[in-house]
Amino acid sequence: MKALYGSTSDEIETFVIAQGLPKYRAAQILDWIYQKNVLAWDEIKNLPKDALQKLSGEIRLTALEPGEEKKAVAGGPTKFLFKTPDGHFLESVLISQKDAPDSREGEETIPQGRRETVCVSTQLGCKIQCAFCASGQGKFTRNLTAGEIVEQVARISRMTGKKITNVVFMGMGEPLDNYEATLKAVRILIEPWGFAFGARRVTVSTSGITPKILEFVKAVDGRVRLSVSLHSSIDEVRSSLVPINQRYPLKELVSALRRINQDLKREITFEYTLIAGVNDSDEEAEGIAMIAKPLRAKINVIPYNPIAEFPHKAPTPEATERFCDQLERRGLRVTLRQTVGRDIDAACGQLRLDRMSAR
Can 91 be counted among the known catalytic residues? Predict the structure, then answer.
């Protein structure tokens, strides 16, 4: 049975009218599922009992089942396991932190100084197969639906009792390889009839599917944040780390980003996983500056998190600081992302199709 979660305002209105209910009931349902995060029909309090029985007999409200929850040590992130209707498992992460506690540069301030960020997955597995990321190492199963994407946010909020302030599309999968569901999920998150997140509190990350980047940014009118996985400023190196670079090389990617920057005046962030002896040279720092400065882009430097399948090594703290200094000397804005969640495989690049200890 299909789930109502992930439906738009128009879709819910059409469904409600088809069930013989007044049109205004759609707005009530939208408020309960996206604003109040209800996860069961019987939690909706202002619909008649007979209407609830009719609706619940026609469609499920939600799709996911909660599984195991793992909390990192020392106040780190929490990883959540969810089961899909067809019996597969996906992972999401909640990162609780004060504003930019480890950053070299401060970021947008959240009221009360507390940021609760959910990192959502968009696919079961990943076809991009980056050479430092666990998500692409197993079999790609399927795309997630828009409902399965946004339901991760609602369930984590309910399970933890926390008000989510930010959503990042940086979990399992390449968001723009699941374009339609990602776009629909983003709209549900930011529209007034949906979760009503401030658009700048939603970030979509991509490995660089150039045509889809342009299409997506235009579709959302540049409102949400765009984060691009760079990882090298040298085509040969980037192709070895991010194989999609062979199809959409740096020249093509950067050209598209310049169009976005010039036409929509929106900031772009580059994610840069720093790997010892691979992409930590002065040549790389100079190349990053040549790419990022004309775009006025910010650089998030992420020390590599070890994955058993890969031979790569994490840089030392000293080498990481040196690389960040090299970027700053070239006039770039740099944020060093401190590693959290390694002990539960919830750090950047460590999510995968994993049942943890679910039975």
Answer: yes
